[in-house]
From TrEMBL, chains A, B:
Residues 109-211 form the Nudix hydrolase domain. Keywords: Hydrolase. GO terms for molecular function: hydrolase activity. It comes from the Eukaryota. SUPFAM superfamilies: Nudix. The keyword Hydrolase applies. It comes from Glycine max (Soybean). InterPro entries: NUDIX_hydrolase-like_dom_sf, NUDIX_hydrolase_CS, NUDIX_hydrolase_dom, Nudix_N. This is Nudix hydrolase domain-containing protein.
Length: 211, 211
């Protein structure tokens, strides 16, 4: 049985996508390069869950607002409190916030969002958002990776937080990017360890949808 | 022809690894889950390049020192300059630096490192580091993803910067994590667009090594 790839709807661009065939031993990934840029709307086939539910853009639960990291908003050094200047450091090409007192550079880099596509009885588990952004829309359980955890650990944690579901990660599923807001996504295919799920604090409902 | 997976040596843990078979149409990835945690030393077979050269840990070129994001080092708010307190915000579970003046939270998340495993005539392209960290060791071209670019774009840029090589990304190759220092890696398999490479500012040599 091959899981039909779910075309992921996001507020941005899909960079890399895998599909997946279980129990294929020892080798591996094919690769569906999607021309870049590629608005998600072109990716939606007629038979995906995206046509049946209002699908949320991916979100990142540990911060209420995504940030593209606007350098000029960094006005003070977080280490010494000195005021910053905004300049391109020697040997670099990008504008950075540089402390005028201690000289440290406040690097801003994309945040990594990790999540799970949970497949169960030919259905996938989605969560309905109970908070902003995207209140009332359906989404995969996903959120910001935290320091101290691996991407898989982060995806499992987010699933536990948002769907009270204990999952086992099976394979990578998709790597996505939303460059405009400085987010990079790693989505894993996963399965329920036991048939239990319920809405976490950020969800109003969790439901299996046919693929 | 199947590219033999190169076992990546890093100062940390390997979470997900793919191998790759070119020209396999329309489906997909298998998956080699590696028990976690798994010291890299156990992953090294006898015939990898890692046995022939001193292999650098992955590095991230846009910042001289990796940071695990020590919350208590954040003493001032970068937006208003107020002093911070270190506490667990309501509804969260992790210690954060919270501004005592404006209340903003300085979230620290892992940085994403992107790079290329460049395969050419059954060899792979490595760069010898000319700067710290890991001066004199060999590494894949890789570095921090920047805001405004996709993971693939970042990997291509790092390859251009460190090896003066113009590459085309073929497939994802590996997703790695070094939780201890807050880094998450996405490595892409790539090929040279033309047979040209030379050391960039951070490399003293670039060379093809047999796999």
């Amino acid at each position: 049985m091959t899981v039909k790839p779910i075309h992921l709807q996001i507020c941005g661009l899909v960079s890399q996508r895998w599909s997946w065939k279980p129990r294929t031993v020892s080798s591996l990934s094919s690769f569906s390069p999607i021309p870049y840029p590629n608005p998600y709307s072109k990716l939606l086939p007629t038979n995906t869950v995206a046509r049946r539910v209002r699908f949320a853009p991916f979100h990142a639960s540990s911060s209420p607002l995504p940030s593209a990291g606007i350098v000029r908003n960094i006005k003070f050094c977080q280490w010494c409190g000195g005021s910053t200047k905004h300049d391109i450091p020697e040997g670099e090409e990008r504008l950075r916030a540089i402390c005028t007192v201690c000289g440290k550079i406040a690097y801003q880099n994309p945040k990594m969002v990790v999540g799970c596509l949970i497949e169960h009885d030919n259905k996938v588990l989605l969560c309905k958002r109970s908070i902003q952004p995207s209140h009332g829309l359906w989404t995969l359980p996903a959120g910001y990776l935290e320091i101290g955890e691996s991407a898989v650990e982060g995806a499992i944690r987010e699933t536990r937080e948002e769907a009270n579901a204990d999952v086992e990660v099976i394979s990578p599923f998709a790597q996505l990017d939303i460059p405009l807001i400085g987010q990079s996504y790693m989505i894993f295919l996963a399965k329920l360890k036991k048939h239990h799920f319920s809405p976490g604090p950020e969800s109003s409902a969790c439901q299996l949808f046919s693929t």
